[in-house]
Specification:
heterodimer, A: alpha+beta, 3 strands, B: 242 residues, nine-stranded mixed sheet, two-stranded antiparallel sheet, 11 strands
Chain lengths: 80, 242
């Protein structure tokens, strides 16, 4: 199965990249965008099909390496 | 006859200030400098460790995030926990944060630009092994060169840093005023360098090794390196008796 991990800066932490994108969108006429957060998408190809085990393992990977939880939050999506 | 002082300079793939640090240690301090490849899982007997600047592992994922898991870092963590002196400069600071030897994290510079210029820092704590030759409130001119030096910590961590005098450098004007305008990268509270609670590990974004020789036009960095040398010398007898 595959895991998709998205990592973004936590709410409350200034995301200057997101702000720059928001300004660019605004200058293109998309003035209705209230906030932009830019993050990373990490795709993992896993050897297992055990959903619960995979979820626990990917969560551990996020905590240890994939995200820095002082400044970032992560979301895990498992895909068959 | 005492053994020569030995300072280890870590080398990761992508380190690029390792030779500058080696030069500063040998030429300015007259000590022995040993390059230590990141794959080493043991350190030789050392008096201090410098983690130099650069772009370890190409800054992939996050600055310092991959280097932090190099075998040598396990040895450096043990060295630091035993009270050994560790100085992390720029990427070295980022690695120390990722390794958990220092609290907080680095964000991209507020401007999103890589900044390479001389800045001023005020010495906030002279009772450290790295700043003993400075005067309280002294302003040093040091070069910075980084894209991610925007220091961040949560409020509780910041309070602890302040309460324990762990903030060593704050970005300031040339007259020593800590102002938002003097903050080059958006760092929380203008923080340019901190120690751990025990005081034996320092992380700093400015590069003292790049301004430690009159030939380079600025010797302010020497004060920090000579402080480190003093600390190492004063610890040497203690180390020898254990």
């Amino acid at each position: 199965m595959k895991a998709k991990v998205s990592v973004t800066l936590k709410r409350g932490i200034l995301d200057p990249q997101g702000q720059a994108v928001q300004h660019a969108l605004s200058s293109l006429g998309y003035t209705g965008v209230k906030d932009v957060r830019v993050g990373k998408l990490i795709e993992l190809e896993l050897a297992t099909n055990d959903r619960a085990g995979a979820e626990a393992e990917v969560k551990a990977m996020c905590e240890r390496l994939l995200a820095n939880t002082i400044i970032e939050e992560y979301r895990i999506e498992l895909v068959e | 006859m005492t053994a020569p002082l030995r300072i280890g300079v870590l080398v990761f793939p992508g380190s690029n200030c390792d030779r500058d640090c080696h030069e500063a240690v040998t030429q300015v301090l007259g000590a022995q400098a040993d390059f230590i490849w990141h794959k080493e899982s043991r350190l030789p007997p050392l008096d201090a460790v410098i983690i130099p600047g650069g772009f370890s592992y190409g800054d992939y994922l996050r600055t310092g995030a991959i280097a932090r898991f190099s075998p040598v870092m396990t040895a450096v963590i043990r060295f630091a926990e035993a009270g050994g002196l560790v100085l992390g400069i720029c990427n070295g600071f980022q690695i120390l944060l990722e390794a958990g030897l220092l609290p907080g994290a680095m964000l991209r510079n507020r401007s999103l630009s890589f900044i390479c210029k001389d800045i001023h820092v005020r010495i906030e704590n002279t009772v450290t092994p790295f700043t003993s030759r400075c005067k309280p409130g002294q302003v040093l001119t040091l070069p910075i060169a980084h894209g991610e030096g925007n220091y961040y910590a949560d409020q509780a961590t910041l309070s602890t840093l302040k309460a324990k005098n762990q903030v060593v450098f704050r970005y300031c004007t040339k007259d020593g005023a800590v102002t938002p305008e003097a903050n080059p990268n958006g760092s929380l509270d203008n923080i340019g360098g901190i120690t751990n609670a025990a005081g034996n590990v320092l992380g700093m974004m400015p590069h003292p090794e790049r301004c430690a020789d009159a030939l380079l036009g600025n010797e302010d960095g020497q004060l920090l390196l000579l402080s480190l040398l003093d600390a190492v010398k004063s610890r040497k007898p203690a180390l020898a008796t254990t």
